[in-house]
Design brief:
alpha/beta; three-stranded antiparallel beta sheet; five-stranded parallel beta sheet; 19% strand; binds adenosine monophosphate; 37% helix
């Protein structure tokens, strides 16, 4: 892949990378479309498909994470992707279990709260694998989804801090018609759970309505309590966190107004889902 990337670079070809963990859905494909628009018909779009063990905690769903390479490959072909980069663990982390891999990239500010608090080693895994993918594919731009809002902020910071010579492009969150954010993990939502998962979207809408109808800022603590009650009225739902914060700095705000960013993580049964929106 790196050799191919270097030959593209020598030829002056524009390259766009879309990093994914596979089990592709329309949200991923919208990122591909965005990459294609940015690099043009003569450019190259690379989709990486890699379920990165380093970003999963020991109690998380690494082994059950949905995979279907044949289907992904077909979808990529239909979407006009030029190259799928799908390495395996021994290629990405050679002799990883035997201590043969020991260099990690750690972002120490934006990654502390929210996802980073609930999943302490998650962003270290993300920044490490994304740095590796940038070095391997050497793209001029990489497209990420706003669905993972904090991830975008952390990756942008890494790119700035470590002088990666590429542009990060953010694409909007694609949703099902009823509002559920598309996610590979939605596959886990069998039977009743699918309907109950709507509580994330409803929480975002509820908070947005409250922030907009109120003539003065709404105390974040009060809104958090209200949302926790609202969420936990749903039988299979358990709130992990809900946070209100400045969209640029990710610093939590004491009061909520139009323009505040909200993010939440909710377990629906055993499945942990995240979502976010600008209020
Ligand atoms: P994943 O395969 O879940 O790691 O996601 C790969 C990329 O797709 C990340 O940049 C995600 O933010 C993005 N993505 C995932 N779901 C969506 C969605 N519903 N809409 C837009 N982008 C998404």
């Amino acid at each position: 892949m790196q050799e191919l990337a270097r030959s593209w670079q020598r030829a002056g070809v524009r390259v766009g990378l879309v990093p994914t963990m596979g089990y592709l859905h329309a949200g991923h494909l919208s990122l591909v479309e965005c990459a294609r628009q940015m690099v043009g018909p003569g450019g190259k779009v690379v989709v990486s498909i890699y379920v990165n063990p380093a970003q999963f905690g020991p109690q998380e769903d690494l082994s059950s994470y949905p995979r279907n390479f044949a289907r992904d490959a077909w979808l990529c072909r239909e979407a006009g992707v030029d190259v799928i980069f799908a390495p395996d663990d021994t290629q990405m982390y050679p002799r990883g279990d035997a201590g043969g891999f020991s260099t990690f990239v750690v972002e120490e500010g934006l990654s502390r709260g929210m996802e980073g608090k609930s999943r302490p080693t998650h962003f270290r895994g993300v920044t490490t694998v994304v740095a590796k993918l940038f070095n391997i594919v050497q793209p001029g731009l990489a497209v990420f989804g706003a669905k993972d809002y904090q991830q975008v902020a952390v990756v942008k910071r890494m790119v700035r801090d470590l002088n990666f010579p590429l542009k990060i492009v953010v694409a909007p969150t694609l949703r099902e018609v009823d509002g559920l954010a598309m996610s590979s993990r939605n596959k886990y939502l069998a039977g009743e759970l699918r309907g109950q998962a709507l509580v994330l979207w409803r929480s975002l809408e509820k908070a947005r309505a409250e922030a907009r109808k109120s003539t003065r800022p709404v105390p974040a603590a009060r809104l958090k309590k209200e949302l926790k009650r609202f969420i936990e009225r749903v039988p299979a739902a358990r709130l992990d966190y809900v946070e209100f914060f400045d969209p640029d700095t990710l610093v939590p705000v004491p009061s909520v107004t139009r323009g505040t960013q909200m993010a939440l993580a909710v377990f629906i049964g055993k499945t942990r889902l995240i979502d976010n929106a600008r209020l």
